[in-house]
Structure formats: C-alpha cells, structure tokens
Design a protein that fits this description.
The complex is a heterodimer of chains A (270) and B (300).
Chain A (H helix, E strand, L loop, with lengths): L1 H15 L2 H27 L3 E2 L2 E2 L10 H11 L2 H16 L2 H8 L3 H34 L9 H28 L2 H25 L9 H6 L13 H35 L3
Antiparallel strand pairs in A: 1-2
Chain B lengths: L4 E10 L2 E11 L4 E5 L6 H8 L7 E6 L6 H5 L1 E4 L11 H12 L5 H8 L15 H13 L5 E5 L7 H16 L3 E6 L2 H7 L2 E6 L2 E7 H4 L4 E7 L2 H10 L3 E7 L2 E6 L6 H10 L4 E8 L2 H13 L1
Parallel strand pairs in B: 3-7, 3-8, 5-6, 6-7
Antiparallel strand pairs in B: 1-2, 1-4, 8-9, 10-12, 10-13, 11-12
Helix pairs in contact in B: 4-5
The chains are: A mainly alpha (270), B alpha/beta (300).
C-alpha cells in the first residue's frame, strides 16, 4: 500500500504543474452540468405541455434524473478520453516512459499506475455526474415522485462502466499510436465508424451482433431517458432482460483492454 | 570480485536486422568501461537492453551478480541516448520526479544542480533549455543519490568544448571516487582520456573487450631531431632494438621492436656519441587509429 501511494505520488508530481491537465479537467467539470442544463432548458421550454405536463416527461426530476444526467454525460465521454490520450502520449513524446523505467520503475508498475489513473478519473467524473444529478433533482422541485431505489441508482454504476470502457479504449489507442493528434483522430474516427456500422447493421441488415460492439454495448446500458411514455413497455422489458448481458460484455471488454495494454507494455520495446 | 554488469550472449533483432549478436563481457567494479563503436554498432541497443527498455531476443545479463530488477536500476544513474524530461516542468520539478522514482532524498537536488551549473536555472522549464543545458540536467539526474554505478550514453552530446572538458573532468573525478562508469561513445579521443576498460562493437558483434592496453595495442615510437641529421641517422642505425626509421622532414620517427627506450637515456646516448638533439618526443598511436586498424582488420 505504501509503495502504491508512493507511485501515485510520482504521478501526481507529473500532473500538479501541468496546465493542460487542469484546463481539460476543468472543461469536463464545467461541461457535464452545463450540457445537462442545455438539455434541461430544451426539454423544459421547447416542447408543448399537455395538461401542464411536459411532452417529454420530467427527465430532470427525481428519480428520472438518475437516468437522464448519466445519459447526457455519456455523450461527453470523448472529453476524458482526450485527457487520457494527452497524458499518455506525452510520456511517449517526451520519452519519459523509458526514463521512468531506467530510473527504477518496473514496466508493470508504469502501466498499472496508468490504468489506475484511468480508474481514478472515472471515479472523479462519476462523482461529478452524481453531484449534477442532485443539483438538477433539487432544481426541478417537481411534484412528488416515487422514491428512488436501486432501479434508478444503478445508472450511476452503468455510467461508471461506460466511461471506463471509453477511457480504456482511449488508453489503448494512445499506447498503440503514441502520437496525441493521430490517436485522438483515430479515436474519433473509430467512434463514428462504429456508430455507422451499428446503424447500418441494425436498420438495414437487421443483425443484432452490432449491439455488442465495444462502445455500443456500454452505450446500451443507459437507454435514452426522454419521452419514456412513448416507448412501448415491451421494448423496455426487452432492454431490462438484456442488461446483464450488456453489463457482462462491457466488463469483458474492460478486462480485454487492460490485458492488451499491460501485456504489450510489458513485452514491447519502449 | 563480482562484476558490476555481466552480459551473456545478448542478442537483439529489429525485424530482419540483427542489432546485437551474442554479446558477452563483464564490467569490473571500479572501472571506467568504454563501449566503443561507430554509429549503428549496437552501443545504445546494448544499454537499452540492460536498462530494460528494450527486450532482448536471447541471452541474459545480471547487475551486481543478481537477476535484473527495478530496485537495482535505482542504484544506477543512467543517461541513455537523449535527456528525457517533462517539457512543461522546471528542472527542479523534473528532478523531484526522478528522485521520487529512485527513492532518493529531494535534498540532494540542490547539490547535483550546482554540480552541473544549473542551480540558477532550477525554476526554468525544461523546454526553455538549450541542448547543452538539457544534457547537463540529464547528468544531474544521474547523480541524484550519489549512485555507485553510472551509465552514460554519449554524455557530451550537444556540449560545447568547455562543457565536454567539464564532463570529462567529472567522469575522472567520479572514477577516482571509486564509482564504476559505463560510457558508450563514438568519440574515441574522449574515451581515451578516461577509460580503463573497453568493449568494441561493430555491427552488433563484440570485436574485443578487456583493459584498454590489452584490447587496443597502441603502437609507440620516438621522434628525434638534430642540426646534424646525417650523423643522427648513423647513430640511430647502430641503436639496438630499432625496427624502422622514417625520415619526416626535420626529424626521424624511430620504431622499436620492444618498448621504446627511456627518452632521458636516448638523449644522453646521442650526446655521448657527439650529437646534440634539438627535438625529442615520445609518441603513441591514438586510440582512434588503433580502433580503425582493429575494425578494418575485422571487416577484411
């Protein structure tokens, strides 16, 4: 444990005075509530109210907010991915990944602390998301809602898994490509191509395997939360049935990414 | 005595290129060990393997008689290839990271920065440093915690003549303090002045290793001049043990079969024979010439 904290302290020394890190982190901290506010404003003011009720329901009031905010925050997951790619490719650009090993870290120590950093960033962003949920829940002060339980809180866990999935893909790309700009470009390209394949597969070729592609499967953990009344109960029940599978496959992807990243770093020429 | 570093049949390939072919040698404790070879001979690859940043394809190595580990590397100050630091951090903060990884006290940073004359710039960002300053910072980083072993790969890269002389003095000083220094360089004049032992690599093959005298036999000769060159020639012709005499303008180059005689004896001998020397200079083949001769022989 002491050794782990010592290693973590070294990583902190790398970040403490890195302005880009603080700027990107601040952007994430600001954008999650800000983006949700934009959606909140849109849903609250841009749709007609029927009998005083919003057409899209009350997505930002308790307990719906536990689903809505993680869904919206999920759209912004490219932001922590940019931060991860920047931090990891820096080590390659400055060749400090070699120097850290030369100075007395094992390769395993270097790569595991990077993976742990990704975990910590995921925890941090999840906390921001929870705080945003609470903010909007209290802001809306909507009429009495049923009390939230595991059915609602679990979306925080799903968000955590979804972000970990995205972040570890970013880490993998950063390690394979080594250059920040190129790694970010390919990461975005991959996101777009996967969405294209999913749309094509699902709508044109009617195949279901596309649902289990790396990003799509974790996206599916949090279905879109708006106008739930217009979605058939059968479809909701089908989603509910598939959740354990989506969760298992997402976790499996996480394990695979960790395995590839750590195996490659431990074996390759640095 | 257990060697500081022991290599056994180290091989390394990059695709189809064989960078190292079964290289084996030992680095004795307390030596200044030069790894010599032209660019592309495998010097940096070899050091990369023993510092665990490159994976070898065969063979093994040990530090201090034990299997390599991260703890051992903390006791070795290494400058490999280029100075590698976080560009956005100051010299002080970069060295704090190095000290933390090595588990060495932060207090030592002031000493090493003063040693390489960078203390005044300790708060400047690494990216604002000149090439020479970056190199000096890398040497400072190696010296943190006063390690008993230092590995320098082309340590004078980017330094001006006075910087080169300073590093040379530093290496001599460190060696006299009993430290083992492994020095890879293609600048033979630099190595000649400091090394006690050498390993010579050419295209990944170890040509020779050992102490400098046995690994690189450098030819010796004597240069003599006088106002009466013909009379001098006659005296030299009668001198025992002379192998050949080459006339070189206003002096003769005299090569001996055995080690050259003492210059004082030679001077008095000529005087006794009735001739006054106006020039007497013992000479030794440069390491560079000996090295070129050796590598040419192997190539041929």
């Amino acid at each position: 444990m002491r050794n782990f904290l010592h290693t973590l302290r070294v990583e902190w020394l790398k970040l403490k005075y890195y302005r880009t890190f603080w700027i990107l982190l601040s952007v994430i901290i600001v954008c999650i509530p800000a983006f949700n506010y934009v959606i909140y404003d849109l849903t609250d003011n841009s749709f007609p109210k029927i009998n005083g009720q919003n057409l899209l329901g009350n997505p930002f009031s308790f307990p719906n907010v536990w689903k809505t905010v993680p869904y919206d925050a999920g759209i912004l997951l490219f932001m922590p991915a940019i931060l991860i790619i920047t931090l990891f490719t820096n080590e390659y650009s400055y060749r400090t990944h070699r120097q850290n090993i030369i100075d007395g870290w094992s390769r395993a120590r270097f790569i595991y602390i990077k993976i742990i950093e990704v975990f910590l960033l995921t925890v941090f962003v999840t906390i921001i998301t929870v705080l945003t949920c609470l903010y909007f829940g209290f802001l809306t002060r909507t009429p009495v809602q049923p009390k939230a339980g595991w059915q609602e809180y679990r979306f925080i866990l799903y968000f955590f898994v979804e972000m970990l999935d995205y972040s570890l893909i970013a880490l993998l790309f950063a390690m394979m490509i080594r250059r920040a700009g190129l790694a970010m470009g390919i990461f975005f390209l991959y996101m777009i191509i996967e969405q294209f394949v999913v749309s094509l597969g699902r709508n044109k070729y009617k195949v279901t395997w596309v649902d289990y592609l790396p990003e799509e499967v974790s996206d599916r953990l949090i279905p879109q939360p708006f106008a739930r009344r217009m979605i058939s109960p059968a479809s909701t029940s089908l989603w509910e049935k598939h959740v354990p599978l989506y969760l298992s496959i997402s976790v499996l992807y996480i394990i695979i990414y960790i395995f590839i990243v750590s195996w490659r770093f431990r074996k390759a020429d640095l | 005595m257990t060697p500081i570093l022991s290599l056994k049949s180290i091989s390394k390939t990059y695709g189809r290129i064989q960078a190292l072919k079964g290289v084996s040698f030992d680095v004795p404790s307390g030596s200044v060990f030069g790894i010599l070879g032209p660019n592309g001979s495998g010097k940096t690859t070899l050091l990369g393997v023993v510092m665990d940043v490159l994976a070898s394809n065969g063979g093994s190595y040990s530090w201090f008689g034990n299997a390599p580990s991260e703890k051992q590397r903390r006791e070795i100050g290494t400058l490999l290839e280029t100075p590698n630091f976080y560009h956005y951090l100051s010299a002080q903060h970069n060295l704090e990271i190095a000290a933390a990884i090595k588990h060495k006290p932060v207090d030592d940073i002031e000493r090493v920065l003063k040693l390489v004359r960078l203390y005044e710039r300790k708060d400047s960002k690494f990216q604002s440093f000149s090439l020479g300053m970056k190199q000096r910072l890398a040497i400072a980083s190696c010296l943190i915690g006063n390690p008993s072993v230092l590995v320098f790969d082309e340590p004078t890269n980017g330094l001006d003549p006075s910087g080169i002389a300073e590093i040379r003095e530093l290496i001599i000083e460190l060696a006299s303090a009993g430290k083992t220094i492994i020095l890879a360089s293609h600048l033979l004049a630099e190595v000649e002045k400091v090394c006690t032992h050498v390993a010579i690599l050419q295209r990944g093959v170890l040509i020779k290793s050992g102490d400098v005298k046995s690994a690189l036999s450098q030819e010796e000769w004597m240069e003599l001049g006088s106002a009466e060159m013909e009379k001098l020639k006659a005296i030299l012709d009668r001198l025992p043990g002379v192998n050949k005499i080459i006339s070189s303008g206003n002096h003769f180059q005299v090569y001996f079969n055995s080690p050259s005689p003492d210059p004082a004896w030679l001077n008095s001998h000529c005087f006794e024979q009735g001739i006054a020397l106006n020039y007497l200079q013992p000479r030794k083949e440069s390491l560079e010439s000996a090295f070129i001769e050796l590598t040419n022989n192997v190539s041929n």
